[in-house]
Amino acid sequence: MLQLSNILIDGVVYGMVLFVISVGLSVTMGLMRFINLAHGAFAMAGGYLAAWLIREQGFPFFAGLALAIAATMALAAVLEAFVFRRLYARTELQQVLFTIGFTFFFIASVNFLAGAYIQQIPLPAWLQGSITLGARTLPTQRVLVAAMGLGVVLLLWLLIVRTRFGIWLRASVDNSAMSSSLGINIRLVQCATFAFGAGLAALGGVLGAELMPLEPYYPLKYLVLMLVVVAVGGLGSVSGTLCAALLLGIVDTASKYLASGFGNFFFYAAMILLLALRPHGILRRR
Amino acid sequence: MDRSESLRAGAVRGITFFPWQAYLAALVFIAVLYWLFPGNLLFLTRVAILALLVMSLDLVTGYAGLPTLGHAALFGMGAYGAALCAKHLTGDPLLGLAVASGSGALLALVSGLFLVRYQGLAFLMLTIAVVQVMQNIASKLQSITGGDDGLSGFEVAPVFGRFEFDMFGVTGYWYSMILLLLSFIVLQRIMSSPFGLSCVGIRENRDRMSANGTRIYPQLVKLYVIAGAFAGLAGGISAQVNQIVGLDSMGFELSAEALVMLVLGGTGNLVGAIVGTALFSGIHHFAATANPFHWLFVIGGLLMIVVFLPKGALQLVARRLAGRVLSLFGRHA
Amino acid sequence: MSLLKIESLRKSYGGLKVTDDVSFALSEGERMAIIGPNGAGKTTLISQVAGALSSDSGRIFLGGEDITAWPGHRRVGQGLVRTFQISKLAPDIPVIDQLALAIHQRDGSIRNMWRHKDSYAQVLDEASAILRSLHLSAAERRTPSEMAYGDQRLVEVALALVLKPRVLLLDEPMAGVPRSEAQLILDALERLPAKLAVIIIEHDMDLVFRFAQRILVLANGAVLADGTADEIRNNDIVRAVYLGKGGNS
Questions:
Q1: Nearest by CB to B307, which of A98, A268, A275?
Q2: Under an 8 A CB cutoff, do B136 and A264 touch?
């Protein structure tokens, strides 16, 4: 029984991290039909920046985190406007190749600038302890991750369902040609969404630094993970991504606890099953 | 000269029938390489093996338009097949190749029946899943595959009873190069047939093919099996020449590298596969010796540039060169 | 015996009836036009006849045989061919190769993996001949992306004809074709084989009255009227619903 709740908790935390990192990719792919295999680079950028700011420059944890996210968002916005935008009209294969090339380049740059060792993000003292919630004692860090994940879900829900930007976004995902003829500034929506998704990825990179260590090959190592979550969840679907991330997070954690000899087998088997049944996304009917 | 003769003499959009002189020239080129670079035979052999893998990938991704990141599964299957054949059945290399090719084709059939029902991103993801699952299985079946340590300790008999596989790599070089050439000839033939044309048709407009009454699913399964046979063959050659098979022969990384090689050289015409492999391997060879990360700069940069080149720019240059060469033989291209 | 018989075809999407108890029969060589306001369900009907969409109920007979459950490709094999409202041509394959593909499919040689596709002299000659009959010989080696839209629509008709249909379903063949190129298509339609039964969906009334001996008027998924051109022209209900409403396209 204890093990089951451990699996659930760890699985949910892992799923939350996957969600926060991947949701930006899902929306980007749904909105701009742009397969961005370099998405992991933003998660890594966030992590590296946060590590540098907090460790080297002495910023307090949350300040460093906020700054890292902001910087990543700025970087993403610039890249979107000047580079990635040119790829929207190109074929899937070309997008895949360009973004893989970009990822390689990014990895080499990071290695050049920061070396090949794992980046540690020092946690403030209060985060290093444990919290007792009811009958369970959990590491505070885990609780924080889960809480922030939930916060992101709430924020996204508010943004998408309650604001005008959200309406623009949903309209554009559904039909961008129509939306732009209705006066919605598509370029702005695209750029903002891309940047925001990158910012979330940066947050995820920092939050997940313990589960997914930050080192130069990060974007490639975890690329498949992100793609799986996005594919299973359905492009452009936030709720689908959440569902998929939690499901896959729990499955992967469970298999690590219960059947560690099998490696990623169950994760991929689950993915095959889910994709085969719902090739357009877990919550989609199309 | 009647219509079919005039058409046969020419090229129809990238599907060319090379005249036999071209193949002779290729043979001569292989000999020249051997003579020029006696110390780099192992490297050249590796290029030949990978080129064969990438050609087989071209069938699925270039001709049929299905980008896949799981092709190494078929390569690995062939490699383990050949190795296990040598270890438990017979050391005869040609028989080993038959087993390798058959294994690749079998896996392609089993996975293809399922995979080929999908397209685009779903297909891509599923191919990744297949290769990861296969790698996991190979890792788990340690007693058979050697797991992380790899499968070794098998001996491959000399080819035709005379040519031994030794550490100098002479036999290996000729073995892989000739097999590459022969495979090229066969694949050229297959993809220039009505069947090959139908695969291109499926890539360009599936609805059109359906409207003609063509059943897409069986055509793609057949193509996938053919691709599997040749990928398996490449794996088998690799196993026999290197006399060891590792888990990385069934990995996502190899699949991704193959795709990159294919795109660098140009999709949809088999020659691009060879050119791209040579280019990528050459760059990797030189750049990686300095600092393993530096070659990522080069390859990354190349990939980004290639995408922005006008469609098939490399191919255009290649075709112009080929045209000049062919006209020397009195043919038009 | 009729060549094509549709019996009480029905299809709904939720509460919306897109095909509402449609029945008609077509004989060899008969030319019928289906007209109706936008959203009447004309293309949906054609798609069901062609096998691209499944019906909720009703039956389809081809040459007396019940083909309701048959998948689309099987119907093509038996001579039931359709064209599309928006051209479905492979953009970068030369026109003659696309025709060859259709011929290979028809003759079964599409499975061949050994002979060079250009060694099939008969196939290529047939493809050339049909292009010649449509005055498209110059475009033989061109790809659709290099051709005028009107020519592309002609190629689409050529592709349909090459499959040797008994029944041809033409979905708005004139759609999107500029006035200057319209005549080519009209000529082609006029020269269709006499024994071929044709159903044409069109909005251009001139073409409809010129081409069709029989007209089926569809509205809200149901058959409003079914008769000769004259009968339809003089039908009050039809005029009110469709023709009379400034219906001049």
A1: A98
A2: yes
Contacts of A92 in chain B (CB under 8 A): 67, 120-121
| Residue C118 in tokens | 């250009």
Q: Which of B125, B263, B296 shows the shortest C-beta gap to A97? A: B263
Percentage above 90 pLDDT, chain B: 45
Distance set, CA B233 to CA A215, B58, B100, B134 (Å):
36, 15, 5, 18
Alpha carbon of B323: minimum distance to chain A alpha carbons (Å)? 27
- CB of B225 closer than 8 Å to CB of B113: no
Mean pLDDT value of segment C229-239 = 81
Q: What mean pLDDT comes out for the span B64-75?
A: 94
CB atoms within 10 A of CB A147: 11
Q: What contacts A278, CB < 8 A, 6 or more positions away?
A: A232, A234, A284
Q: Which of A50, A21, A47, A51 is nearest to A36 (CA)?
A: A21
Residues in Cβ contact with A265 at an 8 Å cutoff, skipping those fewer than 6 apart: A255, A259, B133, B136, B137, B140
Contact list in B for residue C43 (CB cut-off 8 A) is none
Q: Which residue has the tokens 């009958």?
A: A135
With residue C5 as reference, give the H or E element that holds it.
Answer: strand C4-13
**B302 contact A CB<8A:** yes
Domain boundaries along the sequence of chain A = 2-118+138-277
- Candidates C33, C25, C27, C26; CA nearest to C8 is C25
CA end-to-end span of chain A: 39
**Residue among C93, C111, C114 minimizing CB distance to B204:** C93
Please check whether the domain covering A2-118+138-277 is classified as CATH 2.60.40: no
Task: Specify the 3-state DSSP secondary structure of C38.
Answer: coil
Domain ranges in chain B are 37-290
DSSP readout, B266-309? -SSSSHHHHHHHHHHHHHHHHHHHH-TTHHHHHHHHHHHHHHHS
Mind listing the pLDDT tens digit for each residue in A41-92? 999 999 999 999 998 888 888 899 999 999 999 999 999 999 998 888 887 7
Question: What are the chain B neighbours of C115 within 8 Å (beta carbons)?
Answer: 193-194
Q: Residue C8's pLDDT is what?
A: 92
Q: Which amino acid is at C41?
A: G
Which residues from B are below 8 Å from A109, CB to CB? 297
CA distance C16 to C221: 9
pTM: 0.83
**Angle at the Cα of B27 from the Cα atoms of B240 and B189, rounded to 5 degrees:** 85
- Which of C91, C93, C117 is closest, CB to CB, to B193? C117
Architecture of domain B37-290: Orthogonal Bundle (1.10)
Q: Distance between CA atoms of B318 and B316, rounded to whole angstroms?
A: 5
Tell me phi and psi for residue A132, to 5 degrees: -105, 115
Kindly identify which residue of chain A lies nearest to residue B306, measuring between CA atoms: A98
